[in-house]
């Protein structure tokens, strides 16, 4: 039995057992084939996303790691819901729903007696929210109500509606920090100023014996004037004067911002140090545009938090001041004792940086203190430097200059060789990591048509409108995909319709729908490469790059997955990836500063160049086919190497410049492509 066939059988078994009321984890289904656990999880996530979009049964699957309130209000709100879904709470008029989490809802409301706008949070009646959990929630909320700080969202009232408690909080009209960042870093000094304010607010909470436990950009609101306010103390707890109320084994927090001791869940470790760590994670994201740890799923992210060290911020953003990098990495230390003793110490160190003083995180050595002193006293330091220079000249003439110089030159050369070796190792690592990212993106994209094909094997009653809606919903949820097509064999969709090829694609910022049928589109779709590829590969296959006639002549590559019914091939689901994706990937590598004139390109299994900085060599350029352009013998030997080995390097003559260079290559297993980095 093939890998894909076994995987499809597991998906069908999971659906059947879920319909029977059994909640079966993927690990149990894959007990005899553990290598399929992760592919099955990916397939079930994609299936859940489709079912949620189409409302075809069952709640979406997710990876919940918080066993307490974990609400993340989306910027701008989601608008009102049905009237009968809103609770009725005395003295408050609910205006709109701002956001909804797994166990709570936040509304924008008007307090009738005072005529003010507030944010009102209610707790949903979940099975895991027992009566003692409600009691702890109210106890913690009452403690937070004591916090009076301009950078903490204030609680106006704590009450109960029927069996469920609610909180009335200050309403902040604005986006959160996550929306402001949107994957881009802040200027370093602005990031430092923001962290000083946040650390001061967290210090106030710690003084009152409260630790937040879920600090992250989504929980930092920005008022209209830019003032930051910390919100969502739904996971907060007392760390002094009361017993630890968190049950053993229950996790609380968001993986990318959780300290290692939060993941371990050991009693007595949930103190201020975890908030210091979270402040460091937020600081890291403001400096680099990304969290310190982020993987494909929550479990992998937590594994990174526990075992790996964060990449230094200057590796992503070389202009980051070294002192800010040191402060950030001290907050992210694995052991709590190696972090700042409290949020106030963090704020004070940031203030020292902004004042141009040595920070405490890394006591300045004699040379550094001397340099700072020289910057503050330029006149005296200039005279001192001149005197020192005169002394050095005299001593140099007296001492055995030649011998010392030769010795220093030897040391310098050895250091240079060591630096070059380290740089080459780093470039190999970066090339492999970028190839891994490309491989992950391609596998994620391929799972979309494979999952849709699985649905269409069982949903034989879908009409054209339902298929169009399914493709539209998937495109809205999958920004990587340029277009999706469902095409059938003659009369395979309906007995009264011979041909069917529904295509939904991105066009001028919107989604467009068309049928790829003659006479508008020639030849008939069943003669196109993307259709024939699925007929020849039961597991699906990536195409060579081509010009998409149905997609406004957009250069693209396509993954095609076959549709089988009753063991017979009945049609194809295809997903298109625009060539623009590879240009964006190349720009990410360009930011890594691989060296002067260095660059990267991607080659398909058929020797077509998918991305190259010179337009004529990038598909659909005239010289984008390596099989049809003049190549030096050294480069032909290099191409033979990457066809045989998944990873390696060699020296060859660059076909685009005619100059010798070092080529690093790494295979992309999902499609059989190769990522090549050229170093000059």
Task: Give a description of the structure.
The chain is of the alpha+beta class and 680 residues long. It has five domains: 3-54; 83-354, Transferase(Phosphotransferase) domain 1 (Transferase(Phosphotransferase), domain 1, Orthogonal Bundle), CATH 1.10.510.10; 366-420, no CATH class; 459-578, PAS domain (Beta-Lactamase); 590-679, 2-Layer Sandwich (Beta-Lactamase). It is built from 19 helices and 21 strands. It has helices spanning 3-19, 26-29, 37-54, 131-144, 177-181, 188-207, 260-264, 272-288, 298-307, 313-316, 322-331, 343-354, 366-376, 378-398, 401-458, 464-477, 529-536, 580-590, 633-644; strands at 92-100, 104-111, 116-123, 155-161, 164-170, 210-211, 220-222, 228-230, 237-238, 483-488, 501-507, 510-515, 541-542, 546-548, 554-565, 568-578, 599-603, 609-611, 647-653, 660-668, 673-679. Strands 10, 11, 12, 13, 14, 15 and 16 form a seven-stranded antiparallel beta sheet that branches. Strand 20 and strand 21 form a beta hairpin. Helix 3 packs across helix 16 (464-477), helix 6 runs antiparallel to helix 8 and helix 13 packs across helix 14. It is flat, with a radius of gyration of 30 Å. It starts with a helix and ends with a strand. The model is unreliable at 49-84 and 241-250 (pLDDT under 50).
